[in-house]
Every structure is written in C-alpha cells, then in structure tokens.
Please model this.
Amino acid sequence: MEIIVQTKEMQRRAEQRRREGMIIAFVPTMGYLHEGHLSLMREGRKRGDCLVASIFVNPTQFGPAEDYNRYPRDLKQDLKLIQRVGVDICFTPSVAEMYPDGFQTFVEVERVTQSLCGISRPHHFRGVTSVVAKLFNIVKPHLAFFGQKDYQQLIAIKRMVKDLNMDIEVVGMPTIREPDGLAMSSRNAFLNQKKRKEAARLYRSLVKGKELFAQGERSAATILQEVRRIIEEEKSADIDYVKICDAHTLEDIEEIKGEAIIALAVKMGKTRLIDNIILKEE
Ligand code: AMP
Model:
C-alpha cells in the first residue's frame, strides 16, 4: 500500500491510473476506522481496480464549540486496517496541505443541508461538501462510497455531484451496526460503559417507528411520539431532533407517502450521536 500526503502527488498517481484504464474507487474518511468504514472499502475493492481511501479530519466541518481537537485519531492502527482490506493508496494530507494560506473557496449545497443536522450545525455541510469536492479533484475517482448512516451527508453529496456535473458515481452503503444495534461511529469511543449501553436505545426507537409504519401507521406525529417516548425513557438522553422527512428533499412531512426516513440526533452526555432508518412500502 502506498501512503501519499501531497495533493500534487496524489493527482499525478490518479492520472496515471486513469491512463492505464483503471477504475478508481474512493472512500473518504476521517479515520479512527471501524467496520462501517471497512465495509465501504470492501465494496470499493470489488468494484474498482485502484482503491483509494483518504484519512483526513477536516477542520472546516466542525463548529468552533465542537470536538475537532478531541476527535479520536489513530493513524497507525488505521493503516493496518486498510492494508488488510486491500486499499492500494492511502491519501492522508495535513491541514496545511488541504488549506494553504489564502484558501477561501467553498461549495455549498443549499436546501437539503438546511434541515436536520443543518439547524444545530449551521456550517457543517458547507465544510463537508467543500472538502469532498476538493478530494474528488485530487483523487479523481470514478466511484465514491458513502454510508447511509450519515444520510443527510449522502444526499448533499449526491446533489453536489449532480448540480456541478461531476463525472462520479456516488454509491450509498448500508449502516453497519454493533450487535445491540448501535450504529458504528468513531464517536462511540467517547461513550463510557453506561452510556454505551444506553445508546442502543436509539436504534430500538427507530425499529419501533418502522414497525408502526409496517403496521400501516402513516401519521408522522404518531410515529414520532412513540420514538421520542422510547428515547426519553433514558433521562440522560438529550434530543437534538427526531424527525420524519421525505427521503429525497429532507423536508418534514406530516403524512408518510413514498419514501421517508426517521432521522435523529441525540446527545448522550457530551457525545452527539446520529442515526436513521428508511421507511418505504415493501
Ligand atoms: P467518517 O470517518 O465518520 O467521516 O465516515 C466516513 C464514511 O464512513 C462516511 O461515508 C460515513 O457515512 C461512513 N460510515 C460511518 N459510520 C458508518 C457505519 N456505521 N456504517 C456504514 N458507513 C459508515
């Protein structure tokens, strides 16, 4: 496996691979890798000839009071893991390499980033879409893999690719969960044993919501009431939002028609966790 830290070198290597006729598959991450990340890379390995993974904790997607400095990092362990799943190139630039002095250009996807996490994290998606656009220009992938766990991010990136005519297939991948249902996340490392156990409640609440939908319930308010009730049974769970929205526009809906999602963000102590589940007619 090759490790590249300079953007120019990554671009040269990507161009070379393209000239050789290879399909470049790309998995961007912020590191501290778990099975969720690795599942994206395994799919990339199957579908591409050259598999690139990036590890970069992107400062522009964190708010001033958020956990950029505290975000977990372990490059040595990450490199071991990605080598095992067959990554060909790991791109791991420094902040100065990605944001040299004078940097001032951002990509903003407007509507789909305004609801859900966009309310409590107003600059988050602007940071995400900007860094992903940069990474796409550096890695030059044909295919890029993103998890449905970060559903709003996936929708925003699909929108950006479409709106800016980027010639890249964005592939959404299912959420990988712990045995008790908790969605895998690098931030789970912040949870102490007690909070970690309590966090499984989030997925249980989503499953309950989906069950109600499967039984024919179509009122968002009725489903949300039950989902909230399950979360609120845990006194220390601090709900940022629990919403049902259209799966494409991410606008709130009252009555579920077509494809929808139940999405939530809940703080367990200091750790903010997100999760979602898709509701669609079988
Ligand atoms: P992150 O390092 O948190 O920025 O995540 C990098 C990529 O991995 C994103 O596309 C995430 O959606 C995806 N990802 C994170 N957690 C999971 C998970 N539990 N299952 C599937 N994909 C995930």
